[in-house]
Write a structure and sequence with these properties.
- By secondary structure, the chain is mainly alpha-helical.
- The chain has 10 helices and 2 strands; from the N terminus they run H-H-H-H-E-E-H-H-H-H-H-H.
- The longest helix is centred in the middle third of the chain and has 25 residues.
């Protein structure tokens, strides 16, 4: 879920609001892996009191997104390469299955939103600020996932948030072009109603991203 969508879909509580903002900031790299989180700074940033920030941080600590160490305080979790690979495998399976479900129940209006999200990114041809390309990529993906259910979208958001965002694969134009081409094949399968193919393509697309990340990290 992108920031405009967070604002448009007002959370039921301040804790949910802070939790959504924190997940978004971590997923997009605004709050980087390994960085310290301070309650008062976050409360000021999000315009709330420290209480909902403290509760949101407790929830993020419970799912491993952030960690507490006696001498370091609260930090965004950093992952080993094998843990990152495992998360991509989970994403591949979850997102492939979600796309299948989306095709089976999607409405014409939802297809239209997916097409618009795709077109906004495709027109860049992989050129531009990496952070903005990454944001538009996220819009495309979640235009699909949110067509299934908020519960499924939230689950996939947690998987995205768990991955370190400081090495965006959209920094490399050649990689961006490959990803855009894969987006087009996924969209084509969605439009023609081929659930199995759309799911297979999305699962493979996630692992393409994992391969590109390995190349960037020199592993």
């Amino acid at each position: 879920m992108v920031q405009s969508e967070i604002n448009a879909q007002l959370p039921l509580s301040k804790v949910e609001y802070v939790l959504a903002r924190l997940r978004e900031d971590i997923a997009t790299g605004v709050v980087a892996a390994g960085s310290n989180l301070r309650q008062q700074e976050l409360a000021t940033r999000y315009g709330v009191s420290p209480t909902p920030v403290r509760e949101a941080m407790r929830l993020l600590e419970a799912d491993g997104t952030i960690t507490y160490a006696q001498h370091r305080g609260v930090t965004v979790s950093e992952l080993r390469p094998d843990e990152i690979y495992d998360l991509y495998r989970l994403r591949s399976s979850a997102e492939g299955s979600t796309v299948e479900a989306a095709v089976e129940r999607i409405t014409p209006e939802q297809v239209g939103r997916i097409i618009m999200a795709h077109d906004r990114l495709a027109v860049t041809e992989g050129r531009g600020e990496a952070a903005e390309l990454s944001r538009m990529n996220r819009e495309f993906h979640f235009a699909i996932y949110e067509s299934v259910s908020p519960l499924v979208s939230t689950f996939i958001t947690q998987l995205w948030t768990a991955l370190p965002a400081r090495l965006t694969i959209w920094k490399v134009e050649a990689q961006a072009k490959v990803l855009l081409a894969e987006h087009q094949t996924i969209l084509d399968a969605i439009v023609r109603g081929d659930a199995a193919e759309a799911g297979r393509l999305m699962a493979a697309h996630v692992m393409t991203s994992e391969n590109f990340r390995q190349v960037q990290q020199g592993s």
